[in-house]
Structure formats: C-alpha cells, structure tokens
Amino acid sequence: GEQAYRQAVAYRRLAAQPHALAHELNNLANLYQKQRRWELAASNYEEALAVLPIEAYPVIAAAIYNSLGTLHFNLDRLEEAHDAFREAARRYERLPGQTTRSALVLTNLGQLSLKLGQLPAALDYLQRAATIWRQYGQLLWLANVLGGLAEYFQRTGNLVQARSLYEEAIELLAAFPDNDWARKWTADFKEALAGL
Questions:
Q1: Residue 95 gets which letter from DSSP?
Q2: Contact at 8 Å (CB) between 179 and 140?
Q3: What does the alpha-carbon distance between residue 150 and residue 127 come to, in Å, rounded to a whole number?
Q4: N or C terminus of the chain: which is more exposed, having fewer CB within 10 Å?
C-alpha cells in the first residue's frame, strides 16, 4: 500500500540511489494515479524524472514517461500526454527486449492520435502496435488496437473495414469474460458497430 511505497521512497533517498529512488517514486505515483490523487501523482513523476540519470536508465525513464502520459491523458491534457508518450516510445524503440512495452506505448499514441484527429499518425501507430500484439499473442491488447483501427476506418469512410475490425475485436474479447477492460471495450465496440 501507500505506506510501504512511501517507506521505500524514504529508504532510497537515504541510500542515495537515484535510479532506485526514481523507480519507487514511479510506483508511488502510479498508486496515486489509481486513487485519482492527480497532483500527488504528477509531483512524484516529475521528481522521478528530475532525479533519474535518464540516459543511463532508459527503461525506467520510458516507464515513467508512459505513466506520466497516462496521467495527462486522464486529465485531458492531450498535448502533454502526446509529448510524454513520444518520449517513452523513443526510448523503448531503441532497446532490445522491450517490444511489448513499446507496443503498449504505440497503442497509447494511436488512441491519443485518434482523439486529437491526427488520423495518419493514428493509423501508423495502431498498425505497428497490432503487428506486435498479434506476434506475441496478446489478444486483449490486440482487440483494443483493432477497435482503434476500426474507429480510424469508420472516420475515414471505410465502413466495411470498420465493421470487420469491430467484429474481430468483439470476437477476441469474448475470451476475457471476467476482465473489466474487455467488458468495457466490448460494450464500446458493440455500440460503435450498431452505429455503422
């Protein structure tokens, strides 16, 4: 819980371990974000980035930028979210062994680009993410991205392709009946499909 994270942060401060401190600050900020304590989350992310030797620890930096992007997105600060997600993507794409984390950021960038009306960028990000999710058999995330691609095709007037992608996404999500995200996305995609 919060107390354990706060103790870990205090310990890392005393131990003068900036990368470990940044990691613990990120954990604490993620907890605050889940609790919707936005300002506390933001201040912890910012401190984590300030203390971290970013170029020496790109994986930790990318995780913090991705979390910060999610915070900005939740607060409807879309340009700031875009900047943070781009920083995360830039780091993950250069690192071996970070393919699925890169796909997560590409998914975030694709969905955000849709929201910003940046349709060519959305298509690029979502197609790249879909390729990775399919390759790794991550069907829940693939379904989410297929729903984003369906929205892209719906907005660009290709309703046949949109329908096909919504149907595929809904079919994939049926394998996750107990997952909250799967239930939400299924409802969203069925509503969008009914509107075609």
A1: S
A2: yes
A3: 11
A4: N
